[in-house]
Amino acid sequence: MATLLLHQDKVFEDQTVYLTGNAYVGCIFRRCALVLKGVAAQIERCTFESCIWHLDFVIHDSDKWNQFVSHTAPFIAKSLPKAPNSGGK
To answer: Number of folded domains in the chain?
Structure first.
């Protein structure tokens, strides 16, 4: 199992943050570009404000896909802003 570098209760603002190889616990990300180049990252109890995601990894089988869907996709989905309502157009 990979050893991850721990970042706990830190605030990241206006910067590029490389998530792969790191564990983030209770951190705040504001206006950051978050780079994920693989699924070896841990994110727990973090908040995201106006961040963008750069995802760069290969999913080569159904097990990797299931791992992405169950572990990585949920915190990405929670961090994304809601699109404004177009008013029925």
So the answer is: 1
Residue 86 belongs to some domain of the structure: no
For residue 2, the SS3 value is coil
Position 89 pLDDT exceeds 60: no
pTM of the predicted structure, to 2 decimals = 0.80
Instruction: Please say if the pLDDT value at position 57 is more than 60.
Output: yes
The torsion region of residue 65 among left (phi > 0), alpha (psi -120 to 50) and beta comes to alpha
